[in-house]
Each structure stands twice: as structure tokens, then as C-alpha cells.
Amino acid sequence: MEHIPCLIIGAGPSGYTAAIYAARAELKPVMYTGPQPGGQLMITNDVENFPGYPDGVMGPQMMEDLRKQAERFGTSVRYGTVSEVDFSKRPFVVTIDGSDKIQADTVIISTGASAKWLGLPSEQHLNGKGVSACAVCDGFFFRGQEVAIVGAGDTACEEAHYLSKMCKKVTMLVRRDEFRASKIMQQRVLNTPNIEVLFNTETLEVLGSEGVTGVRVKNSATGAVTDIPVTGFFVAIGHQPNTAFLKGWLDMDDQGYIKTVPGTTQTSVPGVFAAGDVQDQIYRQAVTAAGTGCMAALEAERFLAAVESEHAIDAL
To answer: The pTM is what?
Structure first.
């Protein structure tokens, strides 16, 4: 069975950053990319808020740059998905694609979180062409335009308010007859003049061929179907952390996000670290994910050094 010092699970900004730091520390990291190498940025057209790209960069190109940088320092990037883990003792045992097993002295989990979508074919067709699941990431491209956003919770209200600062008009589509958001967030939205809230409203279709031109909605109370002209369509109905394969091994919150020791990336199992969106439901930005990837690699290096020191003392 192959035995490695540092295993990185997932290949987004946090995973690649962890790989760069771990490789430079000569931990000989091995990365398994998972089913979507590069994460959500692989379906993001323009990234303009990541440092070092003054003219912006295409999401897939940015991930390619990070991969090459990680490999330059010696990271072994492998295509495969971790299907099972055994964190009961060190070295940890990890199963790849249901069959192959490897041992790892430390593990960095950077599997991210996937945006929840409505499940409309038109929504997927126009993803990255006016359809987005991140107002903070993409709102800038719609300044001075009219947009719509789906959702009823705090995140949806926060993103609607964010969009209102740069967009001409924001139409908020709420499926039920009330918000799920906190009272203060509701009031913030309702008191913003260029936000219109449509309750009892179901999204039927995102309109457009090569870009969003509108959204077709249905009022569940009256049955009326209406086309709303917009150039941007934002989905804010939540994210799902990619942690199903870790259930029962690590402490998680009620949504499945991995809990870490405050100020660190250390999980409930010593030697296992979590970086990026898999442990962050607040910021969810590429740059913050990269920051925690750096932290995880440094902490993995220190963990291994401490273990080696203990073994040296025991040998005396």
C-alpha cells in the first residue's frame, strides 16, 4: 500500500495553494482532484477579484495556472475521487474510486461546497452567461443593469442588497409568501428602493440563448405567468459542502460543513485539516480559500515535525 506524508483531497484554490506550500516544504504531497478538478471556478468565466490578475482571468485558466505551479514544486496531481476514509488511527487509510487504498500521515480536505441550483435546463445552459450563484463574485459585471435573484434566506437578502448598490433594479423572487431571513435582513431589503420583492413566485425558465435576456415566472397564488426582462440571474438558495464521504469521521455542523479549531484548519482528528469552502459558509471566495489552503499546509508541516520530534525522543 502506498504511503505518503501529505494527501490533499480536492483541487480548487485551497487545494492547489496547500499543494504549493506542502511541496515547497518537501512534504511530497499527492493530490486527488475529485470529479470536478478546479472546483466551481471551472464554470466561472471571468475572475476579476483574485490578486495578481490585473486584467482578470478566465476561471479554468486560473486553475490551470495553479495546477502548473503546484506541479512545478513536485506535487503529484492525480485524477480520482476519494470514496472512503478511515481516520481511526495514523497513518490514515483512504480509498480511491472504491478500490485503491493509500496511507497518509496527514490529510488536507479541500473538497469545497457546491451551489444548490433550481434544476432548470435553461439555468444550466446559461450558467456563466448571465446565470451565477455568487453575487459578490459576479455582480460587478451587471452594474447599471436589471437583474433577478432567487432565494428567501439571509444570504439571498444580503446578496440582493449587495446587487442593489450597483444594479439599476433587483427583482427578488421568493417562492413562498414570506422570507426565511432574519427580521433585520428582511427590513434591509424591503427598505431598499430599487429592490422589488415578488412573493409566491416560482421560476419556470431563464430566457436567452447566448446570454440572459429575462426570466419567466409563475405566481402560485394567481397562476399568472410573466416574463421579467433582466440581464443577470442569481441563484441564492444555499450551498452543499462536499463532505458526504467524511460522515462519522469528523465533527460537522448541521449543514455538513467541517468544524475547525478557531484560527486554524485543524479538524476534530489530529493530522486532518480542512481548507476552503468545505469549512467556510461565510466568505466563499477564491482568495479566502487560498488563504486557508496555505494555513493547512503549514499546519500539516508543523504536525509532522512534532510527530517526528516525539519519535526521536522515544528512541532515546
So the answer is: 0.82
